[in-house]
């Protein structure tokens, strides 16, 4: 049986934050169009994985390798990783005062287009697509003209992350608790967008403990992170077991 070449390959990644080594050794392969759910107790290293891959300066890679479409991700600056096709959402998206949402997204999109030797989108062409994408996600078009996330509710901030995702169309997207603060319609919007983008080839790594959304996403794999390592791999049954029993080790039947 032929397996597709992974778009993201992580090997023995070790990451230090401050004085603590948070990721001890993490390895995983992510195929184009696939969806992996990452679960783990607080402090197990889930967000650290995403932020280290994104190039956050507080997250120091001590060893290991990460390849995005065959390119050495760890040798690139943070903005170069984004241009190469990596998208990492914030668990708590920050405000960006004074920067309009539409300008922020269009600037990021045109930077990616330039990296692919594609012509930039002018404001008119960008806005027509952005308004439709916002409508699909339940965001009023008026929010495109407001400063990034300023005055947005928690759910609106997460939908705004999804708007950026839908416009940037990355090769790999790591979504960190994207369901947090979302209502039922918001979760449906997440699932619909992920399904559409997976069909177009985007691979997803989703950090979540919300079983209903995980079941709707129908992941290819579920990984449990513990003490900075992948302690267990499985499918939906693993997610259901964690949702029912938590992260404490389960007794082995005699």
TrEMBL record:
Instruction: Identify the PROSITE patterns for this entry.
Output: ABC_TRANSPORTER_1, ABC_TRANSPORTER_2
The root-end lineage is: Bacteria, Pseudomonadati, Pseudomonadota, Betaproteobacteria, Burkholderiales
| Keywords, in A-Z order | ATP-binding, Cell membrane, Membrane, Nucleotide-binding
Which species is listed as the source? Melaminivora alkalimesophila
Please list the residue ranges annotated as the ABC transporter domain. 8-252
- Family of this protein: Belongs to the ABC transporter superfamily. Ycf16 family.
GO: which molecular function terms? ATP binding; ATP hydrolysis activity
Cited NCBIfam families:
sufC (TIGR01978)
* Protein's recorded name: Fe-S cluster assembly ATP-binding protein
């Amino acid at each position: 049986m032929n397996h597709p070449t992974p778009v993201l390959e992580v090997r023995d990644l070790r990451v230090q934050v401050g004085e603590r080594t948070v990721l001890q050794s993490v390895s995983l392969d992510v195929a184009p169009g696939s969806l992996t759910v990452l679960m783990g107790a607080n402090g197990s290293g889930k967000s650290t994985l995403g932020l280290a891959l994104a190039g956050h300066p507080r997250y120091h890679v001590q060893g290991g390798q990460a390849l995005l479409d065959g390119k050495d991700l760890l040798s690139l600056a943070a903005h170069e990783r984004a241009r190469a096709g990596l998208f990492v959402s914030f668990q708590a998206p920050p405000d960006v005062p004074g920067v309009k949402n539409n300008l922020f997204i269009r600037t990021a999109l045109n930077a990616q287009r330039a990296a692919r030797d594609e012509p930039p989108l002018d404001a008119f062409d960008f806005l027509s697509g952005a308004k439709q994408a916002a409508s699909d996600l339940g965001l009023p078009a008026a929010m495109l003209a407001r400063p990034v996330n300023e005055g947005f509710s928690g759910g609106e901030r997460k939908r705004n992350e999804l708007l950026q995702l839908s416009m940037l169309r990355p090769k790999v997207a790591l979504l960190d608790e994207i369901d947090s603060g979302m209502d039922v319609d918001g979760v449906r919007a997440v699932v619909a967008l992920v399904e559409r983008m997976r069909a177009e080839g985007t691979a997803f790594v989703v950090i979540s403990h919300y079983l209903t959304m995980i079941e709707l996403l129908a992941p290819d794999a579920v990984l449990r992170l513990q003490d900075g390592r992948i302690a267990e791999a499985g499918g939906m049954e693993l997610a259901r077991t964690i949702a029912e029993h938590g992260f404490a080790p389960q007794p082995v039947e005699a």
